Protein: Pyruvate, phosphate dikinase
Organism: Crassaminicella indica
Amino acid sequence: MKKYVYAFHEGNKEMKSLLGGKGANLAEMIKIGLPVPPGFTVTTEACNKYYDDGQKISQDIIDEIFCHLHELENNTQKRFGDYNNPLLVSVRSGAVVSMPGMMDTILNLGLNDESVIGLAKATGNERFAYDSYRRFIQMFSDVVLNIQKYKFDNILEKEKRSSKVQLDTDLTVDNLKNIIKEYKKIVKKETKKAFPQEPKKQLLMAIEAVFGSWNNARAIIYRDINDIPNHYGTAVNVQSMVFGNMGEKSGTGVAFTRNPATGEKKLFGEFLMNAQGEDVVAGIRTPQPICELKNTMPKVYEQFVNVANLLEKHYKDMQDIEFTIENEKLYLLQTRNGKRTAAAAINIAVDMVEENIIDKETAIMRIEPAQLDQLLHPTFEEEAMQKIEKITQGLPASPGAATGRIYFNANDLVKAANEGEMTILVRLETSPEDIEGMVAAQGILTARGGMTSHAAVVARGMGKCCVAGCGEIKVDEINKVFKIDGKIFKEGDYLSLDGNTGNVYAGKLPTKEPELSGNFAKLMSWADEIRTLKIRTNADTPKDALTAVKFGAEGIGLCRTEHMFFKEERIPAVRQMIIAQNVEERMKALNKLLPFQKEDFIGIFEAMGERPVTVRLLDPPLHEFLPNNDEDIKILSKQINVSYNTLKEIVEDLKEFNPMLGHRGCRLAITYPEIYQMQVRAMIMAAIQVKKQKNIHVQLEIMVPLIGHEKELEIIKKLIVSTANEVIENSDENIVYKIGTMIEVPRAALTADDIAKHAEFFSFGTNDLTQMTYAFSRDDAGRFIGEYRKKEIFKKDPFQRLDKIGVGKLMEIATQLGKRTRSDIKLGICGEHGGDPEAIDFCHKIGLHYVSCSPYRIPIARLAAAHAVINNK
Amino acid sequence: MKKYVYAFHEGNKEMKSLLGGKGANLAEMIKIGLPVPPGFTVTTEACNKYYDDGQKISQDIIDEIFCHLHELENNTQKRFGDYNNPLLVSVRSGAVVSMPGMMDTILNLGLNDESVIGLAKATGNERFAYDSYRRFIQMFSDVVLNIQKYKFDNILEKEKRSSKVQLDTDLTVDNLKNIIKEYKKIVKKETKKAFPQEPKKQLLMAIEAVFGSWNNARAIIYRDINDIPNHYGTAVNVQSMVFGNMGEKSGTGVAFTRNPATGEKKLFGEFLMNAQGEDVVAGIRTPQPICELKNTMPKVYEQFVNVANLLEKHYKDMQDIEFTIENEKLYLLQTRNGKRTAAAAINIAVDMVEENIIDKETAIMRIEPAQLDQLLHPTFEEEAMQKIEKITQGLPASPGAATGRIYFNANDLVKAANEGEMTILVRLETSPEDIEGMVAAQGILTARGGMTSHAAVVARGMGKCCVAGCGEIKVDEINKVFKIDGKIFKEGDYLSLDGNTGNVYAGKLPTKEPELSGNFAKLMSWADEIRTLKIRTNADTPKDALTAVKFGAEGIGLCRTEHMFFKEERIPAVRQMIIAQNVEERMKALNKLLPFQKEDFIGIFEAMGERPVTVRLLDPPLHEFLPNNDEDIKILSKQINVSYNTLKEIVEDLKEFNPMLGHRGCRLAITYPEIYQMQVRAMIMAAIQVKKQKNIHVQLEIMVPLIGHEKELEIIKKLIVSTANEVIENSDENIVYKIGTMIEVPRAALTADDIAKHAEFFSFGTNDLTQMTYAFSRDDAGRFIGEYRKKEIFKKDPFQRLDKIGVGKLMEIATQLGKRTRSDIKLGICGEHGGDPEAIDFCHKIGLHYVSCSPYRIPIARLAAAHAVINNK
């Protein structure tokens, strides 16, 4: 028979997929002799069985749970529901991959009207016993019975008011008994049943609630964002309670073995005396820094420091540890690899290599490439910051800089963000309900909570700027305002947050490029040693090209020429070219454009030096350059001296039913060869000038878009060669260039052997290739893609995540066929997928030579390419 | 060294690709002992070399030609340019595949101011000699020197007028000498050189002209229409002259061994006494029927009959024979397999099987499937014909019926045809310059020319209705009118032609379905025995379904349901369904449509009996059903009681950037499952009713369009099954059905193994598959496809001719992957390519089970499927 329940001492850290992360680590800590309260874990397989059985815990599993419970009673010498010395347990979820704050926890389970007396007797602390019972009813009602929390809070506040006390800890036993009476009334009213008194029933209800919470809305969203499969399931940990709220010699805390924001090698965390469980992370009372424990309880602190060192060495990674002190005795409730910012991740990984704890490959694998994103985005400009008003300062909970309009709840914010607003979420404190808002916001500001509060932990995980615990602001969520020093900030007002300092500024702030630290460069150089894929950039301007080089670009994989056409001083000539009714008129307009294009290319070539530069010839349909509405057509008609009616007719005539599938890309050059001729002339002339003036041998690669038939490329290649060679022959420079094509039309992939006859390189344009392969227009898919995601037809938008099955198969076919014709054909990708780590892994596997992505994603791509090598060893 | 010139006696009929059809057959006739004037053939390889050498005949080839000329002189005992007994030759093109009227011919070559005297002496007929010289100069000037023919005609007419003679044959020697003098003046004036007197020079110039004519515009068009490769080249036949114009005991003629219009086994042809070469087919003088020769020259006639029989038996096919009688001696100048109408082709093939000349497979291969087209189109309705005015009668030159507006030249006609007009080309006589007009016209009417005139031969080849030699009409091509009995018909007036009777009617005439004769049915039954592909039809209505069954359809491969939605009484409900803002409203509208859809299906099911019927669920984007302009939106807003603004907003909101790639096909069912549910309910209810009332077990196949991802099909299959089964369970009939999908999205083909998990059949939708694979929108490709054809990027529009390389590769991939998952998966094609013989061959090869095409193409598909078996043996 399958085993669904494991005592802690039966497990170890390798059993994560069965016991969940928390359960496996509790088992491991017991194994290495650390003080962990005993307990047992109900496995993830039990969770899956629960769902397979129609959301029902089978009798077998129930029997196994009670068997382990009995063992726990023997072990602790306490009995469940006992009138003298009751066993109390915590019930906690424990997913395979840590999902902070997403799952529900119940403490003090086992208390009822009898065992609360037993607890009082056993601890000699009646107040503590009733406070625990009060907490238990509140928590169980919230999590298991789904009664809204504020109803209990109101009673607590009322009792505090009527007794004129400030803190929960000031409440007397009688106060607590009153509260419990009132709490029970609420339960009776809301559930039509009395609060469950039978501890075993409480336990099963709690376990079911944990299983149930695996599929609550916020858990699903979290898994979706983080690519956690639904079938993983969660384990449930049932652990005998220890009490941090047993008085002033008790406490509870959370600490990281290194600083999770910076990576600094120094214990980092917080604790609260006379507090239980979630009090620390919930941010309701503001906790003390961990170093204060040294003064409060030196021995316990020393013991904790030793434990922390031991755990870090044992796990060879920075640990995030939860502990409780019960009457000066230290208990460990959890350890796990700590979440950290990208900066911290890099510093920790590099430090650990230098401390001989891990090797370089391990260090590289410690950094999720996507995580680097948070390092690569701008910070505020110093100067601007000095001129603007700093209104307050909170905790620098997650680094980065954010500017946007403020919103006070996730709904309003998401709505604004969907309309393209930059946004800041302002909350008293955040909770899992706010997740969607946090995803959409540029930054998060909370009035309450510490560095390990929900807002801080989640924001760091997302690489999102967060300022937490900013106590000076008075947030009124109902009226959507906050006040500070008498000033009022309303919904929609601009605010700027500096996640590195915790500073909050009124108004908008300009940003600047990130500086990349020494450890960053070191880690990148290790990645560069390992990776085999080259990393190029998509860049259309000298500025982008320079940024990309700074980030480590080894070439340009896609330089689009159409954006150059839109500039103000050029667009009239572009439009003249389009409405030209014969070759002469068209040539005249093109000749005006030639010097501009040449200057563009000179700038880019100089920026790139002797790195390869792939220039794509004009791609979009011509009507994209023409005005759309009557007013603009009238203006243009005057500008270029063509009658309104003629112009209107031309505009109408150029409209297409399906522009995506229309007269664009190389089709333009089949009908109007003059356009590509001008572009080729401009690039060759630019290369000549850069050679002459800077002695740079430009590595020019001329790329033809939208090829579907080898003859298209054959014809256009001839055109390029004759045009280029004419310019070269009239100069005294020896300019060399390659000619290749985008592979973005399915037919090109399917006939890549024929196309390779005329192409020295292929570059996969996975944006269009995805559109054609799926027969999805990116512009129109919005109408149904939501439903597709909801029905799990695909997990991710195929425009964000490469469709390896379909589009990927075309890429593989093209790669194989292309190499069959030309074994040294150069292969790359320049679609947006080129910056996505998963796609980079795929490109590595199928044997591409480079990926090309936006400048800011280059370090991500460098790291992902190293990951690909290691993962595919 | 390569041999570029062959004497006739060196060749045989198997050497067509080298000697051309004419040369090979001349050789063959000599081989079997028939009277053929001796000569030699310059090969097609010489023609290709001519082009490879930059349009120059190499010295080697010239030497070889003169060597053979010398042999010919010895052979004929005549000398080239001789003053006493000169050798004269004809120079004729001879392509591999017969290209009637497209190539140029020169007779009497070798004549000059000296040899004309020699010819007079040798023949004792001075008039004949000068007439021959006159003809030679005229022909040589036209064909070789490119001088416009009318200039010579004018001189001839002037001489006739001033001498007051009617016929060319009445001209005296002096007349002819005058004419020759004037002709030479024209040549001098036009070419700045005297008419070439050196016979060898004449010969080389003529050969070059033949080579050159291989690439004249009309030859290129003809090859393009008839899929003749450009690299075939043409041979040149140089043959010693015999003279049909040597007096009243001479003549020339053309005859078919069987009737080329009907297939009747009876010599069919025409001859002209005292005439030369092209006089018969050029239609300038009206010739006599071949049977008249029996009276004129009984012995020659008998000899000819024997020769004709011999040739037909030798070639095992109906022969088209050219002959000349020189002083009562019969010479054969050409034999070839005769062009024939489809009806004749069938009758001849079937008769020859019954005469034990050929076997059934040969008979089947004798009919080009596409040729059947002409048999399968409507003829005029008898009744209507009796009511309408028959204005005249011509020769029934090519069968069929045509109604349309008249045009007097190809340009005007093509323009009108491009605007969608039905057209009739009216000409005095046609010439190769008219080809494009003939292609575009519904029918052709000529005033002059016989059954073997240019118009008649070409029209039969095209399967186009033609009435020729209609002498009563007076055609004025300049003023674009024709007169008959004082009535005037202007450009744009309606006319109707009956190609089977030669009758010409004023006005428009309704048509009726063709009757399919006994031999047709016989041949089809032979094809059916051989073929392995099933033939289905694309039919959306009971009427189409019945027509298809009559033509031999074995099922429906594509029944589109969207056309049903457009009917007047339904469209309001369709629109209500579309603008519905919630499921209830949508269901209400769909419930209105349900009975209509049910009735549609009942009609189709009854028509098809127990043949399989594949019904495709709704495919087009919903906005196609909504009005487009403000006026119509206003009308609709009143009809359905929805405010104009709301409606306008809905219409605008449904517009898409790329509807082809938008919210359509199965995507509609992912978002609005109710639509497919209604359709499925309607088909199952219809099947139940047809079972109950007619005891027909409907073979229903439900087809889902636009699948790109297996999950789409998984979800929709569940929807179909649950909907269908609910209806079935509530009835007492056991309806069975299959569920399958279109393969029309590249991704579906690439992931066909996954998709086949949920599909019992695949049907290739090659229309959309071509659009997606090429990234061409059919609606927009017009803007550039002309240039693509011109630059030979593709020979044929890929929407007409299946792209076997690209789209075909996807079909092969899908076929293999589909079978891997489900070995018994049913595979078919329902794109328009399903009726194209070349695509049918491809479908046979890759292992599809059926093709589906329009009803009128079914016999073509049946025959093509048999061809595919034989061709791929």
